[in-house]
Specification:
Elements lengths: L1 H8 L2 H24 L3 H8 L2 H30 L11 H23 L1 H6 L1 H5 L1 H18 L11 E8 L11 E8 L10 E3 L9 H7 L4 E4 L16 E11 L2 E11 L7 H40 L1
Antiparallel strand pairs: 1-2, 1-6, 2-3, 4-5, 5-6
Helix pairs in contact: 2-4, 3-4, 5-8, 8-10
């Protein structure tokens, strides 16, 4: 509610009227001091006695309101009422460091034991484990992005699905298959496989996004969020979905649900948060898909050359 009031108070026309009124009052006070000009006499000449009293009272209340509004606007300029804040990218750094360490291990294996490395490319990649680590760091990062609220990482549900057989040379975008989710200790996932053309799942946000070929889906209002067997829809307040791509073709999907807390008053506010704080994590997850596809391609090539 405070965030909504702040947004309305910071409306450009309201701020303009407040500033113009204060400048006019200051200008009038200067003229009165220099030339003895009095607004009271002018009002008395224009209006009747009763009407003049009403006008003067209204002006007094209006100036009082404007002074109060200016104080509030100044306070919100210094201490923004928005719940969101720019969080330090510690979670992204941690994920990036892990990726670098994994690449170093791959290089060391190739240099010290090439036959073993070629046979264990995919296993060494740890696709599912890396996805889970990124999701957990993403949930923590989202929680850290809010101040003045009780948002915790466990109030954010994030799940990742892959397109079945996306790692093959050719694949059809026909079925989504569950990979990992966070918080895996609190939430459960009922839909492990989602056929994209199955009408039973037609109301799922991920299916709507893939069907329209949209890169992202944003819903600040989840009052019509599709019900699922897990009953998570009862506490969902906001939703973000990312379509994952390789060469302009869908390879997976990320679902992000914000539970319990109303944090965004409009799609525009949620979109702004997504652009500043979530796109980096999307890229990290997409990188895991790219890497798995790359390693599978390398392994296929090695097996073909070994024949």
């Amino acid at each position: 509610m405070l965030q909504t009031i702040a947004e309305k108070a910071n409306n450009k026309w309201h701020v303009l009227v407040v500033n113009i009124t204060l400048l006019s009052v200051g200008f009038y006070a200067t003229l009165q001091k220099l030339f003895g000009i009095s607004a009271t006499n002018g009002i008395a000449r224009v209006f009747s006695i009763d009407a003049a009293a009403v006008v003067k009272t209204a002006l007094i209340f209006w100036v009082a309101y404007v002074c109060f509004a200016k104080l509030v606007l100044t306070y919100w300029d210094i201490f923004p009422a928005s719940l969101t804040r720019q969080a330090e990218p510690d979670s992204i750094n941690e994920c990036t460091l892990r990726i670098n360490d994994e690449i170093k291990r791959h290089i060391l294996q190739v240099e010290t034991n090439p036959p073993f490395a070629s046979q264990n490319f995919i296993e060494a990649h740890q696709f599912d484990v890396n996805i889970l680590i990124i999701l957990e760091n993403m949930a923590e990062h989202i929680a850290h992005c809010f101040k003045g609220s009780k948002v915790k990482a466990k109030d954010v549900f994030i799940s990742v699905y892959k397109v079945l057989h996306f790692e093959e040379q050719k694949w059809d975008v026909a079925t989504l298959e569950y990979v990992r989710h966070a918080d895996h200790k609190r939430f459960s996932v009922s839909s492990r496989t989602i056929p994209i053309n199955d009408p039973r799942f037609g109301n799922y946000e991920c299916i709507k996004t893939i069907s329209t070929n949209a890169p992202v889906r944003i819903k600040a209002d989840c009052s019509d969020y599709a019900a699922s067997p897990s009953n998570r829809h009862k506490t969902v307040k906001h939703y973000v979905g990312f379509r994952l791509e390789v060469a302009d073709k869908t390879v997976g999907f990320i679902n992000i649900e914000f539970h319990k807390h109303d944090l965004f008053s409009s799609d525009e506010k949620l979109k702004e948060f997504v652009e500043t704080d979530l796109h980096a994590f999307r890229s990290l997850i997409e990188y895991q898909f790219l890497k798995k596809k790359f390693f599978c391609a390398v392994k296929r090539l090695l097996l073909e050359n070994a024949k």
